[in-house]
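Subject: Scavenger receptor class B member 1 structure
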Amino acid sequence: MAVNKYKVAVGFMVAGVLTVVFGTVLTFVGPLIIDDQIVKNTVIDPKNSVSYTMWKDIPVPFYMSVYFFNVLNPKEILKGEKPMVEQRGPYVYRKRCQKDNVTFHPNNTVSYKEYRRYYFEPSMSAGNESDIITIPNMLVLGAAVMMENLPFAVRLMISTTFKTFKEGPFLTKTVEELMWGYDSKLVEFLNKYLPGTLPSTGKFGLFADFNNSNTGLFTIFTGQDDIRKVHKVDSWNGLTELNYWRTPQSNMINGTAGQMWPPFMTKETTLPFYSPDACRSMELVYQRPGEMRGIPLYRYVAPKTLFANGTDYAPNEGFCPCRQSGILNVSSCRHNSPVFISHPHFFNADPVLLDTVLGLSPNEEEHGLFIDIHPQTGVPLNVSIRLQLNLYMKRVSGITETGKISEVVMPMIWFEESGYIDGPIVDTFHTNLVVLPAVMEYMQYGFIALGLATIVIAALVRHRLKVTSTSTSCVSKTLFIQ
């Protein structure tokens, strides 16, 4: 009987050793299994029904919040005084994105056009689309700057044209008209006799070209052959580089299309992406770690050099002609209109810009942009992209509509495109990428602990049996001698 117990103890010791080995192997194999599953579910492939559907028809509700800078002193501005503005809004629009014309290619790329539509959300807005707003008239003040080097007689003729069509230096329209377009006799005239002068052939509005439009033909890598390339742009509208800017580096189309990034990020990883609306590639940098409903994330923000001028940041020289740091001249891709983009309220910009306009108050919480991303998968969990549209305006002799306007980069609107993962998607995300890896991690250490405990207990039992057996043998020998 003692022999059997001894064998059982040895058997338990062997089982414990095997359990420890299994747990140890699991510590190496487990992460590989998880990474393999991430790769399979990150590749753009119609066979991955969940991830493919999420990529093709983004189920997360996105919103565009628009804030107008209502001009309070238009008459005084024409006399050379500082512009005074008040922020109005937000006017919130639900954004619906859908990819169409999805075509897969033999070189592991996929092409598509993403269409976008906007729907006004009164319950989320701080006003109605019928609200009246006053902003600079881009058709007049923008054209004035564009024409300032033409002969004086031509400028006088342009000024006469403005008067003929009753176009003044400032517009007072409803939010809906400013956003999506209004009828203008001047626009009709220019489109008829000078086609191509304006970016739009219909109504003239700040977002007239956004609604029911697409962002161009993107061709991106599927990651089928190399997961490090997934979502990265191969070409845009057939182009592998742009022709808007002055240097090859500035004209590069870098990174992804701005919706997802390759998995397995580190804190040294950056988020490069190409933005057709900004006409350039941009790059966000790691700021800090965080957590969203139990899911670990990395927060990425815009570096201060993003809109710096060439003097403050030499690589940006290609985006010039530049003015102060903090604003990007996009006239080269906006029909030479003197338009600049920046962070809202000139956040992270040269203080000179802030001094020339009254009513601005920048801070990072309200005006900085960020993307919270799950580093293992490259999927954004929370996004807030904030940009401001500005018009460079000044007095131009011969064009009387400009009055005595001081040279100023005038903020007109800023908008925030935001969205975050919620509902069943978060639950699935949390289960597959947080709970299951944690369970696997606990299992591997559990197996090691169980194996070690089994070995120790079995060893103690074996030792006890051995001692008992030895004592019994000694007693037997003593009795035999007696």
